[in-house]
Amino acid sequence: MGSSSHGRISSNMASTVSCACFILAVFLFISSMPCEAQLSSTFYDNKCPKALGTIRTATRSAVSRERRMAASLIRLHFHDCFVQGCDASILLDDTPSILGEKTALNNAGSVRGYEVIDDIKSKVENVCPGVVSCADILAVVARDASVAVGGPSWTVKLGRRDSTTASLSLTDANLPKFTDGLGRLTSLFREKGLSERDMVALSGSHTIGQARCVTFRGRIHNNASDIDAGFASTRKRKCSLAIGSDDEKIAPLDLVTPNSFDNNYFKNLIQKKGLLQSDQILFSGGSTDSIVTEYSKSPSTFKNDFAAAMVRMGDIEPITGSQGQIRKLCSVVN
C-alpha cells in the first residue's frame, strides 16, 4: 500500500475519533443540563392505581356539601401555580424559617379549601403512603371540582413533587389583583407562558364562586360608566361604602347562575355586570373584547379553551425527579 493511501486512512481515523469525541462531549454537556420536567397522565397507574378515584370521590363529596367549594378548589391550584410554579407552596404554614403564602394580600381571608386538601391527602396517604404529592392533588382536585359543577374535564398530567419553601414576597408580586388593568394582567400571564386567550378563558372560572365586599366596593360605588346602574344598586345593598362595615360580606361573581359552570360570566361582562374591576376590564374596549364576545356566544369553545388553559397552567415550573419531596402533611415540610 502506498504512503499516500496510508496517510489518508490515518487522517480518516483521526477524523472519526475526533468526531466521536465531539459527540461524546455534546452528550455529556446535554446530560449535565437540568432536565425539562416531564409530567405524565399515567404517573400513578402502577405506583398508586387508586389515587385518582380516591381524590375524585372526596372532591365530589366536598363540593356536594358546599357548591361554592368548587370555585375555591380551582382557585387554590391557580394561586399555587402562579407562585414558584405548581409545587403546593401555597399549602405550607408559616414557620420560623418560612414566611409563607397564606398570609399574602391576595390569599389572606379569601383563599379557602385548605382543610379539603388536607382531608383528601389523608385519604390518599391511607391508600398509598408517601407516593402522591400535594401539588398533584391540587391539580387533580381542580379538574374534579370543575366536573362536579358542570364544567369541563381534562387529562391531568402528573408527577409533580412538593416544594420545601414558600414565598410571601413572590405571592404579592405574581398574583393578579382585583384592581389590575388589562396590560398588567396580560403581562402577569405572559410571564407564566400563558396567552391572552388563556387568561380570558381562565378568568371564566369566575362563572362560579363569590367575592368579598372589600374587593368590589370601589367598583359598585364609583358611578363609573363601565358598570350597569341596576347591577351596582343591587350589589350596594350588601356592600356599603363605609370601609370595615361589610368587608367580609360576599356576593356571587355571576349573579345569574352562581353555582353552575357556564358562559354567563362573559354575557355579564358584555352587559357591564362584571363584579370585579379585573373582570370588567376584559370587556372594556381593549384587545380581549373579541374573545369575551366569542365565549359569550359559544359555551363549548369556552369550555374547551378553559380545559386546555388549565393543562398549560399545570405545566408552570413543576418540581420533578429527585427535587423537592412528597410531603406527608401538605401544610408542613417533612
From TrEMBL:
Site (Transition state stabilizer): 75
UniProt-annotated binding residues for Ca(2+) 1: 80, 83, 85, 87, 89, 101
Keyword Signal among UniProt keywords: yes
Positions of Ca(2+) 2 binding: 207, 254, 257, 262
The UniProt record lists the keyword Mitochondrion: no
GO CC terms: extracellular region
Disulphide bridges: 48-128, 81-86, 134-330, 213-239
Segment forming the signal sequence: 1-37
Cofactor binding annotation: Binds 1 heme b (iron(II)-protoporphyrin IX) group per subunit.
Annotated heme b binding sites: 206
Family of this protein: Belongs to the peroxidase family. Ascorbate peroxidase subfamily.
Entry protein name: peroxidase
Organism the protein comes from: Carya illinoinensis
